[in-house]
Amino acid sequence: MKRLLTGLVMALSLFSTSALATPHIVNVVSTPQYTSNINDNVNETLCLALNIYHEARGSTLQDQVGVAWVTKNRVARSGRSYCRTIWEPRQFSWTPRSVSSLIPREMAAWHRAVRIARQVMSEELSDPTGGARNFRASHMGGGRGYRVIGAHAYW
Asked: Are 26 and 17 in contact (CB under 8 A)?
């Protein structure tokens, strides 16, 4: 799994340089030993951006921020990294897919997901979910204590 994730992160970093706007990525991509030199923060940002992209790509900005905060809240509770939290079995609907289907194809949505990931990780954007650690499609119904934002219900 670690080798798979490293390969995916490297593939994503190849076309994410403008979204991440970090010179480190450019240096990483231009060196043959790039897989051992990935900056952990970039790796974590890409994992969170993948989660936002696959879970809420077609949703409102506030809904995408909500998905990011649910992930951040899970990370805070578990003490694990973003990548470990996201790739934990049965945590998010998109993670069991084949690698080729995980690579973002809609560049505007991908760049937006990366920007949101960075802003949530640095807490530039506040938590619209009220500390939620779970979400599901809002059409599945909510209940007492659910907060609906865009296409998702949060609790």
From this structure: yes
With CA atoms as reference, report the closest residue to 93 among 151, 132, 136, 142.
136
pTM, full prediction? 0.73
Instruction: Calculate the alpha carbon distances from 135 to 45, 52, 63, 84, 114 in Å.
Output: 20, 12, 10, 18, 20
Rounded Cα distance between 66 and 135, Å, is: 9
In three-state secondary structure terms, 140 is: helix
DSSP state of 91: S
Which strand ranges, in their side-by-side order, compose the sheet holding 135-137? 135-137, 152-154, 147-149
pLDDT in tens, 71-92: 999 999 999 999 999 999 988 8
Cβ neighbour number for residue 46 with a 10 Å cutoff: 27
What are the percentages of helix, strand and coil residues in the chain, rounded to 5? 60, 5, 35
- Phi/psi region, residue 106 (left: phi>0; alpha: psi -120 to 50; beta: rest), is beta
CA 69 – CA 72 distance, rounded (Å): 5
Question: What tens digit of pLDDT does each residue of 102-125 get?
Answer: 899 999 999 999 999 999 999 999
- Would you list the domain boundaries of the chain? 2-128
